[in-house]
Input
Amino acid sequence: MAKKSKNYRAAVEKIGDATYAPLEAFEMLKEVASAKFDETVEAHFRLGIDTRKADQNLRGTVALPNGSGKTVRVAVFAEGDPARAAEEAGADIVGSDDLVADIQAGEINFDAAVATPDQMSKVGRLGKILGPRNLMPNPKLGTVTTDVAKAVADLKGGRVEYRADRFGIAHVIIGKTSFTAEQLAQNYGVVYDEILRMKPSTAKGKYVKSITVASTMSPGVPVDSAVQRDYDVKGQGATEE
Output
């Protein structure tokens, strides 16, 4: 196991064994973030689900009110009027057979992909390339659509994907350390509400078991999972587990 840096160990000590109200958690996270770049902030929800069961898979997208802070390059598979609409909406790459050929040649210069339904017979050939990279357009995520302009605007405006892994933990980007604590808390609140809304009907027992927020280089800060509203209002202080 790699030895943790002095700054990391100091951050762990500062966070302590407390569990924090959301706004206080982000204030603490900004205090302990020490990297010389604008770190990405994520929330990690440990859920009482079994993703080995098809009816307990958790996956979707959610629009962050303050954006994600990430510049997203969007590729769109489309022809004709939809292609022109995608270009006008700010898509970085628009194409059809030519785009498929570029990807097959190893040119993957985008972070998200959108396709019109008529293009999916072509896009389907890229499943082994785009699938492992989480770049395959998906109608459930709103990225297979006739309204490509809206899909592009959503992706560039701060729509992020969430997906529970095989351990039942959903990892979601909620911003950057340059955001204010209030902005991070507001984004977190929208994500938390979405996670609750998408609870599988077959999930048994406690659904949200624990929540941790962390930046790229920081240790995790435990968040009080009982706070289900007023995410950007100070709580009654940190509580001991």
Observations:
- The mean pLDDT is 91.
- Helices lie at 6-15, 22-32, 80-89, 97-104, 120-123, 127-130, 148-157, 181-197.
- The first helix runs from residue 6 to 15.
